[in-house]
Amino acid sequence: MKILSIAVPCYNSEDYMEKCIESLLAGGEDVEILIVDDGSADGTAQIADRYAEKYPNIIKAIHQENGGHGEAVNTGIRNATGAYFKVVDSDDWVQKEAYLMVLETLKELLFGAETVDMLISNFVYEKQGAKRKKVMHYRHCFPEKEIFGWSQIHHLPKGKYLLMHSMIYRTKLLTDCHLHLPAHTFYVDNLFAFDPLPYVSNMYYLDVNFYRYFIGREDQSVNEKVMIGRIDQQLCVNRLMIDTYARYDLKPRGLKKYMTKYLEIIMVVSSIMLIRSGTEENLQKKKELWDYLKSADCGLYYRMKYGLLGRMVNLPGHSGRKISVTAYKICQKFYGFN
Fold first, then answer.
1. For residue 204, how far is the Cα from the chain centroid?
2. Which has more confidence, 311 or 255?
3. Which residues of 109-135 are buried (b: 16+ CB within 10 A; e: fewer)?
4. Where are the chain's structural domains?
5. Per-residue pLDDT tens over the stretch 175-221
């Protein structure tokens, strides 16, 4: 049995996917690499087939009609045979020494006395043009090199939460929770990092800089101008996260606290993007988003809207919105996100 299945969603990725795949090959036959060609119109399919032919015991090339990043991840989960599952985007890569440590740790956990639902590691923002690479680590947040539950999580600062890049799930957990990401929708990585959490009972943190997250291309989905242009997709993901939060009786307390904080961050990002667009239509959409939260969970709505971050993005009038954007830029610079 494979230790780890890695899905690599690819759409017109011919210019950079080989760097990603080459970095993943270092895992050898403990790893299953699922290259999902999501209806590409360039040479992506040919590159995927070439690698699958060269490494038949490691790589599988899957071709599908274009369904977007979420559908490519869904396809990866459906085809995964490994005990654990990770997504590595085709413009990102992994660091070899950390990768080998992750695999060795997964082996130990897999054959140990207790099943672990999620392994957490660090990721590095490979921001184009940046002299210093920001590392998102979780030291002092999670116990290190031991199995732990939600009640053992220490304080997580505002800018520190789990992203798809830092997470490896147990594959069966993803099927048990019926994770299905929406097609033709960007920003579904937030759903991947959020929706399965009520099914996660225990975790393990490995303090290694495993995932290298490339950021900075003008056409990248997390580029601010691109996000504003795709704001309806961001709002779709935000509402789905609200639905997930409202669906479960979130216990233990540490799980609820963490999911509340994550949802609050996404509410702030959505609100700021709507404010920065500068249109009356999008200001109305901001109101509708907060009303949606209120209808789903009235108590959570009041706690969020009248908390520090909620107040920051709901200041009245033109001058209030300018203050909101300025405060966001300060947080953006301090925490290093795009």
1. 18
2. 255
3. bbeeeeebbbbbbbbbbbbeeeeeebe
4. 4-215, 224-335
5. 999 999 999 999 999 999 999 999 999 999 999 999 999 986 555 55
The per-residue pLDDT for 261 is: 92
Residue 51 makes CB contacts below 8 A (sequence gap 6+) with 21, 33, 35, 59, 61
Q: What is the mean pLDDT of residues 299-326?
A: 86
Superfamily of domain 4-215: Spore Coat Polysaccharide Biosynthesis Protein SpsA; Chain A (3.90.550.10)
Which pLDDT does position 334 carry in this prediction? Answer: 58
Distance CA 328, CA 103 (A): 38
Helix (H, G, I), strand (E, B) or coil at 255: helix
Q: Which residues are CB-neighbours of 109 under 8 A, at least 6 positions away?
A: 115, 116, 119, 147, 204
Q: Where are the alpha helices (DSSP H) in the chain?
A: 17-24, 44-54, 68-79, 96-110, 171-176, 189-192, 224-229, 231-247, 253-277, 280-296, 298-305, 308-313, 317-335
pTM (2 d.p.)? 0.92
**One-letter amino acid identity for 209?**
N
Going by C-alpha positions, the residue among 188, 200, 109 that lies closest to residue 153 is: 200
